[in-house]
Amino acid sequence: MDVEKTIEFLLNNQAKHDERLNQLETVVGTLAGSVGSLAGSVGSLAGSVDKLADNIERLDEAMVTLAESGVQTNRRIDQLGMRVDQLVSAIGAMMQRPSPPPNLG
């Protein structure tokens, strides 16, 4: 009878191991699906990072262009200021000259 109990014990243990193996296979399947989904998300994120890097590069180029335009604008404003100063000086000089006598002829 000890042999029968041993066999019964071994069969019960085998059934428990089979059940645990099935559970582990289910977990591994779920994990494999999660890893696949995660890989897709990482790929999508990598694409987004690449687009962001391109956008940053274009923004940097635009900022350089804007800065150059600002320098040119400031230079033109300075030139315009100098011309306005010259015009004001010329008008001031004209106003200080005595006016010619009226021609009564």
Structural Rg:
45 Å
Count all strands and give the number.
0
Task: Give the percentage of residues in beta strands.
Answer: under 5%
Which residues sit in consecutive blocks of at least 5 with pLDDT less than 50?
A: none
Biggest β-sheet description = none
N- to C-terminal separation?
A: 157 Å
What is the general shape?
rod-shaped
Which structural class do you get from the secondary structure elements? Answer: mainly alpha
If helices are DSSP runs of H or I spanning 4 or more residues, what is the number of helices?
Answer: 1
Q: What percentage of residues falls in helices of 4 or more residues?
A: over 70%
Give the rounded overall mean pLDDT. Answer: 94
Helix and strand run: H
Structure description:
Helices cover 90% and strands 0% of the residues. The longest helix has 95 residues. It contains one helix and no strands. It is an all-alpha fold and 105 residues long.
Write the topology of this structure:
Elements: H1 2-96
Brief rundown of the structure:
The chain is mostly helical. It contains 1 helix and no strands.
Q: What attributes characterize this protein structure?
A:
105 residues; mainly alpha; 0% strand
